[in-house]
Amino acid sequence: MKAWCIFIGHSPHDDGAVLVYAHTRNDAKMIAFDQGPWTGCDYIDLRAWRMPKFDEHYNSTYGNYFERNEDLPKLSPKFFDDEAY
Question: Is 67 strand, coil or helix?
Fold first, then answer.
Protein backbone atom coordinates (compact mmCIF):
# COMPACT_ATOMS: atom_id res chain seq x y z
CA MET A 1 0.00 0.00 0.00
CA LYS A 2 1.12 3.52 -0.76
CA ALA A 3 0.61 6.51 1.54
CA TRP A 4 -1.10 9.63 0.22
CA CYS A 5 -1.73 13.07 1.75
CA ILE A 6 -5.15 14.21 0.56
CA PHE A 7 -6.32 17.82 0.85
CA ILE A 8 -8.37 20.47 -0.93
CA GLY A 9 -7.10 23.80 -2.19
CA HIS A 10 -3.54 24.66 -3.07
CA SER A 11 -1.96 23.49 0.18
CA PRO A 12 -2.71 21.06 3.00
CA HIS A 13 -2.47 24.06 5.31
CA ASP A 14 -5.57 25.66 3.77
CA ASP A 15 -8.20 23.27 5.15
CA GLY A 16 -6.21 20.43 6.69
CA ALA A 17 -5.26 17.05 5.30
CA VAL A 18 -5.81 13.34 5.79
CA LEU A 19 -3.46 10.41 5.29
CA VAL A 20 -4.80 7.56 3.19
CA TYR A 21 -3.25 4.24 2.25
CA ALA A 22 -4.28 3.00 -1.18
CA HIS A 23 -2.79 1.32 -4.22
CA THR A 24 -3.42 4.26 -6.56
CA ARG A 25 -3.85 8.02 -6.37
CA ASN A 26 -7.46 7.82 -7.55
CA ASP A 27 -8.30 5.14 -4.97
CA ALA A 28 -6.83 7.37 -2.25
CA LYS A 29 -8.84 10.35 -3.44
CA MET A 30 -12.05 8.29 -3.49
CA ILE A 31 -11.47 7.06 0.08
CA ALA A 32 -10.90 10.65 1.24
CA PHE A 33 -13.92 11.84 -0.72
CA ASP A 34 -16.14 9.25 0.98
CA GLN A 35 -14.72 9.58 4.51
CA GLY A 36 -13.05 12.99 4.58
CA PRO A 37 -14.04 16.00 6.65
CA TRP A 38 -14.79 18.27 3.69
CA THR A 39 -18.51 18.60 3.14
CA GLY A 40 -19.68 20.13 -0.06
CA CYS A 41 -16.45 19.63 -1.97
CA ASP A 42 -16.26 17.84 -5.29
CA TYR A 43 -14.00 14.90 -6.01
CA ILE A 44 -12.17 17.00 -8.57
CA ASP A 45 -11.21 19.52 -5.84
CA LEU A 46 -9.14 16.93 -3.96
CA ARG A 47 -5.38 16.90 -4.36
CA ALA A 48 -3.12 13.93 -3.59
CA TRP A 49 0.57 14.03 -2.69
CA ARG A 50 2.58 10.84 -2.33
CA MET A 51 4.06 10.34 1.12
CA PRO A 52 6.54 7.48 0.56
CA LYS A 53 8.11 7.81 4.03
CA PHE A 54 4.83 6.44 5.44
CA ASP A 55 4.62 3.38 3.19
CA GLU A 56 6.60 1.24 5.63
CA HIS A 57 4.22 2.14 8.48
CA TYR A 58 1.12 0.65 6.89
CA ASN A 59 -0.63 -1.83 9.14
CA SER A 60 -4.01 -3.19 8.06
CA THR A 61 -5.05 -3.48 11.72
CA TYR A 62 -5.24 0.32 11.93
CA GLY A 63 -7.15 0.78 8.66
CA ASN A 64 -6.23 2.98 5.73
CA TYR A 65 -7.65 6.41 6.64
CA PHE A 66 -6.26 8.83 9.24
CA GLU A 67 -7.37 12.33 10.18
CA ARG A 68 -5.17 12.74 13.25
CA ASN A 69 -1.56 11.91 14.02
CA GLU A 70 -2.72 10.21 17.23
CA ASP A 71 -4.61 7.57 15.21
CA LEU A 72 -1.47 6.36 13.40
CA PRO A 73 0.34 3.22 14.54
CA LYS A 74 2.96 3.81 17.23
CA LEU A 75 6.39 4.77 15.87
CA SER A 76 4.86 6.40 12.79
CA PRO A 77 6.05 9.93 12.11
CA LYS A 78 3.49 12.74 12.19
CA PHE A 79 1.88 13.12 8.80
CA PHE A 80 0.73 16.70 9.29
CA ASP A 81 2.54 19.47 11.10
CA ASP A 82 4.06 22.82 10.20
CA GLU A 83 7.35 21.25 9.11
CA ALA A 84 5.88 18.35 7.12
CA TYR A 85 5.62 20.31 3.91
Answer: coil
Per-residue pLDDT tens for 5-54?
A: 999 988 887 888 999 999 999 999 999 999 989 878 899 999 999 999 99
State which residues form the domain around 39. Answer: 2-71
Pairing outcome for strands 65-66 and 46-50 = unpaired
66 is a domain residue = yes
Query: What is the H or E stretch that residue 29 is in?
Result: helix 25-35
Q: Closest Cα partner for 6 from 22, 23, 21, 18?
A: 18
How many domains is the chain partitioned into structurally?
1
The answer to whether position 35 is within a domain reads: yes
